[in-house]
Specification:
The protein is mainly α. The protein is built from twelve helices and no strands.
Length: about 270
């Protein structure tokens, strides 16, 4: 007959205890999450009832946008093209710089004494909003689109470096070990063992950030960094809401068109 001690230490019993411990752990995690949300509710002054109470005011504001005024549509389209150009160069420069930084942030590629300082640098670039960078670069290089390009470049570099490094850390080590077995250098291991595995994800991340940067570029213009944001801010500040509605519609159409184009590019490369 099996003793109680033997039964208590059986694999089945240990599995049951482990399952119960996991359930308790998940329950505690959910409780902590609820407590955090409750704590943040007060700090954020959440008041959903105000949406109902102020519904008349919001409806009046929406009516002010209709019908949109496209009298100066040529100017709006021209500035929207500038906005896309700002986003394009800001994203391209970020991708070029984020590739080496993303590799240096990867724990399975670089030593810790390189990974940690590089990650903190990318954290700093990512933590500051594009609008803040835009204001700083407007002071540094003057008004215009170039300030917007630099603002998007710095912030997007921090974002893409993190995404690129996470993709590198999730690779299959087998191909890298196979390349290493041939006597390849460290750079050759990255080129032939790492890049082929992460390139589809990197392309997807870059396209998404380009779409996001088109929206961001339309905002940084509000502080003088060029693009359609200047017109958007002036129309809002002047309470010319029909013109504001026209500008917003042009932004929406442009972003939608770019999203469709990026989907086609993803299908070809991913």
């Amino acid at each position: 007959m099996m003793s109680s001690n033997a039964m208590g230490s059986s694999p089945r019993h240990q599995e049951i205890l482990k399952g119960r411990a996991n359930q308790v752990g998940k329950g505690i995690a959910w409780l902590v999450m609820v407590l955090i949300l409750a704590w943040a509710w007060q700090g954020a002054e959440m008041n959903p009832i105000s949406l109902w109470q102020d519904a008349d005011n919001m409806w009046t504001l929406i009516q002010d946008f209709v019908p949109p005024d496209f009298t100066d549509w040529k100017l709006y389209v021209s500035e929207m093209i500038v906005t896309i150009q700002i986003a394009l160069w800001g994203t391209l420069l970020a991708v070029i710089v984020a590739i080496p930084f993303g590799i240096l942030c990867s724990e399975n590629i670089a030593p810790w004494w390189i990974v940690q300082p590089t990650r903190r640098l990318m954290d700093a670039a990512r933590a500051i909003n594009e609008m803040v960078f835009a204001m700083l670069f407007v002071v540094a290089v003057g008004l215009g689109p170039f300030a917007g390009v630099l603002a998007l470049f710095v912030h997007t570099t921090g974002v893409l470096a993190k995404l690129f490094s996470e993709a590198v850390e999730a690779i299959d080590p087998g191909p890298v070990e196979g390349v290493r077995a041939t006597g390849a250098t460290r750079i050759q291991e990255i080129i032939y063992g790492v890049l082929p595995q992460v390139l589809p994800l990197w392309i997807s991340f870059s396209l998404y950030r380009f779409e996001s940067n088109v929206r961001s570029a339309s905002v940084v213009g509000m502080v003088g960094a060029g693009g359609i944001g200047v017109i958007l801010w002036e129309s809002i500040r002047g309470f010319t809401f029909p013109q504001t509605g026209a500008v917003i519609l042009i932004i929406i159409v442009s972003v939608t068109a770019l999203d469709v184009m990026s989907q086609q590019i993803r299908k070809r490369f991913i």
